[in-house]
Amino acid sequence: MKTLIAYGTKYGCTKKIASLLSEKLSGEVDLFDLSEKGLDLSLYDTVLIGGPLYAGRVAKQVSGFCKENMSALKEKRLGFFLCGMGDEETARKSFEPSFTAALISSAVSTAYLGGAYDFSQMNFPERFIVKKISGCDQSQTKILEGNITSFAEKMNSAS
């Protein structure tokens, strides 16, 4: 069994989370940044797709990938994850609008895996928005190791 973790990332936290997730999955696992080209989905039995949440939806490169590959993805064992600094309940409500009901209903598992604010990588408007919305004015990380482990275990037991 071969697994693909396809992810979108802007500041690198989703990439870090995807890497942590890959270490907990059984079998051969490939990581693929969706900003790159040349992915062959036919090589994979299981596909995990994730990305950061912005304004209640996953990053456009992730939702675009899902739309472009809808038929191929429906033939795979699927899992979806979201990353962000919001609360888990709000993130859970973002799965269906982010990935479509058809894909979510066929998924083995979905998970919210946490996120980070990295002020050193944000421009001024981004820092301003984050400060205004979150009240946070410095970099911080909230990677949910327990959620990563639980998600991996669900995906491993489905194989």
Descriptive overview:
The chain is built from eight helices and eight strands. With 159 residues, the protein is α/β, with parallel strands linked by helices. The protein has one domain (2-116, 143-157): Rossmann fold. Strands 1, 2, 3, 4, 5 and 6 form a six-stranded mixed beta sheet that branches. The longest helix has 13 residues, at 145-157.
Number of helices: 8
- Average pLDDT rating: 90
Give the count of structural domains: 1
Instruction: Give me the secondary-structure category.
Output: alpha/beta
User: Tell me, what's the shape?
Assistant: globular
Name of the CATH first level: Alpha Beta
Largest sheet properties: 6 strands, mixed
Low-confidence stretches: none
Quick tags:
Rossmann fold; six-stranded mixed β-sheet; 159 residues; 8 helices; single chain; two-stranded antiparallel sheet; 41% helix; alpha/beta
What is the topology?
Blueprint: E1 2-7, H1 13-24, E2 28-33, E3 46-54, E4 57-58, H2 60-68, H3 70-74, E5 77-83, H4 88-92, H5 95-99, H6 101-105, E6 107-112, E7 114-117, H7 124-134, E8 140-143, H8 145-157
Parallel strand pairs: 1-2, 1-3, 3-5, 5-6
Antiparallel strand pairs: 3-4, 7-8
